[in-house]
Amino acid sequence: MEKKKFNLRTVIPLATIVFSLVFILVGLKDYGFWKGQPTPGFFPIIIAVVLLISSIACFFQIARDKDSEPVRYNRSELMVMLGAASIILCTFIIGLVPSCLIYILLWLKFVEHASWKVIVIIELIMAAIILGVFTFWLQIRFPMGLLLDMIL
Amino acid sequence: MENFASLLAGFQVALAPENIGVCLLGAVLGLVVGAMPGIGSLAGCALLLPLTYKFNPTTAIIMLGALYYANMYGGSFSAILLNIPGDSPAITTALDGYPMARKGRPGQALMTANLSSFIGGTIGILILTVTASGLATIGLMFGYAEMTIILLIAMTSISWLIGENPIKGIVITMLGILVASIGMDTLSGAPRYEFGNMYLLGGIPFTPFIIGCVGFAQVIKLINEREADEKKRASDDSKQKLSIKDSMPTGHDLGRMLPPTLRSGVVGTFVGVLPGSGATTGSMVGYAMQKKFKSEEPMGTGAIEGIAASEAANNAAAAGAFAPLLALGIPGSGTGAVLLGGLMMWGLNPGPLLFDTNPDFCWGLISSMYVANIFTLLVAILVIPFLIKILSVPVKYMIPIITCVCIVGAYSTSNSMYGVIVMFVSGIVGYLLDKNGFPTAPMLLAFVLAPMLEENMRKAFIASRGSLGIFADSPLKLVLLAVFLVLILTPTVKAVRKKMGGKKTAV
Fold it and tell me: Considering CB atoms only, which of B403, B435, B462 is closest to A80?
């Protein structure tokens, strides 16, 4: 007997069904709907109900659609996400600016196999933008991270 | 006449040295961002929003307005030279621009695009000058109930105009509204859906959310375009030399260009005014309309008329979209939503009263669009010899650069890693939604308009003591309701008819 494959496209409507149910339940329990006039829960509950109904309709629409191509995710997309996540994590240790510059270097060298000349040019441009525009002009104090905080 | 007097006063604001400087900067950045394939005006405005925090609201919006506007020019560069539209409004430009470039006339194709953009944009700004304050006067007649229905119309129209699937459009719009309702109640200020988290109490910050949804999500998608980009660049077509002198169109070219430019300029402006349509719809309508008229060469084979119609319409639509944004506080597109969000952050409340309360701002912005149009044309012409160099920046190098700009920008607007985390999460959500065929622009629009919709709806219910009759007790409200119902029902009826038609064919 042929096993039915799970349609990955139904994940989004399933997630929005859960999301809407949370908003309806929390809204009814904590914020109410109507007490002589609309309460804080009034508007989000109405919207969550519409979201619930449309998500259920969307779920069945996608589940019945046999013609659409399956969604394909690839490793390089995941690498971009992991790259950004690693900058966020490294920020807590070595600070935001060094994390960004190290990420650019590693990405260009090991993922794109760029030449050192290109890497140096891009690093200089990015350092100028981050330090010149954000740090000096907009006066943003970027997080230094545990290591730099200890040293400085 | 009164409008033109206000416009002259507006020029005093627009021609202040600081505003001229940012206008020029916006024009240059817009051209570069527009020319780079894969970024687009929406992501461009979102990524550059943090840079405007240093300015006063008028200067900030002048810069973003110029950037948005110049983006329409820039999108045509890569469409003509590489057959890769820099932004979606330039898709129709590529249909004739690239074949014309292959016929050995890339310079004339670029010049046609620039001149049509300028003329189309000028028509759009002129119509905006005449109509914007009138639209605001009409807006003053709207009460809470009317505004509620108008906001619903705006949200509904963008969701089904952008996406092919109206149900997905509704899902994404509702999702945007719910995300916006996290934090504090708009009327009482009471905490709401913060789940005991002190960061969520302040709500989802606008700029990091937008940067994530459009900027970071775009970077994740961009990685799949690396190979195609490399192949395009390897072709000889993109290695030609250009000069301003050789790019000048002949008198005959100008004669062919002018009629479609004027027609599309007018039509594009009115398309831009409609909520949800924006520059992409404008260029498509302009191009489709040109097909009904006679062209010297067949459309799609390098006809000057095709480039002119598409470019004039998208620039006119970009200008027209400012009318509902300023006069009613309703953005016409995703980029409009970013501009509206920016206005709100700077403490301005776009809507019918804005022309009365902040005339300097409104007329300064409109006047600056004339200035930006001239600057952009000049820069767009002067940049022609360097275009090949600008366009030679490969997509693969832009990925780590834009990732870092997203992170640094998100941090700088929130002064906290919470902003960076919001950007990261919303970027992944935006990417997943896009991958599954859910358009993100309606979510951004809903996110920005949700507080206004909730406030008007709740006040209408308070005024009517809970009666739904308040939404249908005048002819104006009935007309607005009818428009809203038509917008909701049209896609449903279309879908049912399509299904029935399919069944009949099967029988």
Answer: B403
Mean pLDDT of chain B: 85
The pLDDT of B476-494, averaged and rounded, is: 84
Q: Which residues of A touch B431 (CB under 8 A)?
A: 77
Distances (CA, A) of B417 to A136, B63, B412, B422, B424: 20, 27, 9, 9, 10
CA dist A74 and A94 (Å) reads 30
Q: Is residue B507 part of a domain?
A: no
Tell me the domain boundaries of chain A: 8-64, 75-151
**A57 contacts in chain B (CB < 8 Å):** 167
Residue B235 sits at φ, ψ, to 5 deg, of -70, 155
The dihedral region occupied by B439, where left means phi > 0, alpha psi between -120 and 50, and beta the remainder, is: beta
Closest CA to A40 of B193, B179, B146: B193
- The token pair at B434 is 């896009």
Mean pLDDT of B87-101: 85
What does the alpha-carbon distance between residue B95 and residue B291 come to, in Å, rounded to a whole number? 12
Torsion of CA A74, A75, A78, A83, to 10 degrees: -150
| Tens of pLDDT, residue by residue, chain A (152 residues) | 455 567 778 899 999 999 999 999 999 999 999 988 899 999 999 999 999 999 999 999 898 887 777 788 888 899 999 999 999 999 999 999 999 999 999 999 999 999 999 999 999 999 998 998 888 888 889 999 888 778 87
In degrees and rounded to multiples of 5, residue B192 shows phi and psi of -150, 130
Q: Which of B415, B424, B26 is nearest to B215 (CA)?
A: B424
Q: Do A16 and B224 lie within an 8 Å CB cutoff? A: no
Return the number of CB contacts < 8 Å for A and B.
164
* Token duo for residue B316: 């006119």
User: CA nearest B195 in A: which residue?
Assistant: A26
Above 90 in pLDDT, residue B71? no
The H or E element containing residue B191 is strand B191-192
CB-based contact, A28 to chain B, within 8 Å? no
Structure tokens given for B74: 């820039």
Q: What is the ipTM of this complex?
A: 0.94
| B396: nearest CB among A112, A125, A129 | A112
Partner residue facing B178 (CB), from A38, A51, A141? A51
Q: Which helix (H) or strand (E) holds B340?
A: helix B334-345
B304-330: pLDDT as tens digits: 999 999 999 989 988 888 888 888 888
- Please give the residue range of the domain that contains residue B35: 2-500
Instruction: Give the whole-angstrom CA distance, residue B346 versus residue B340.
Output: 10
Contact A63, A7 (CB under 8 A): yes
Q: What separation in angstroms does the CA of B193 have from each of A14, A24, B101, B154, B246?
A: 20, 11, 55, 26, 62
DSSP class of A6: P
Residue of A nearest to B183 (CA): A40
Instruction: Give the pLDDT confidence of B412-422 residue by residue, as tens digits.
Output: 888 899 999 99
- Report pLDDT digits (tens) over B421-445: 999 999 999 999 989 988 888 888 8
Residue B505 within any structural domain of the chain = no
Q: Does A82 touch chain B (CB under 8 A)?
A: no
- Total domains in the fold of chain B: 1
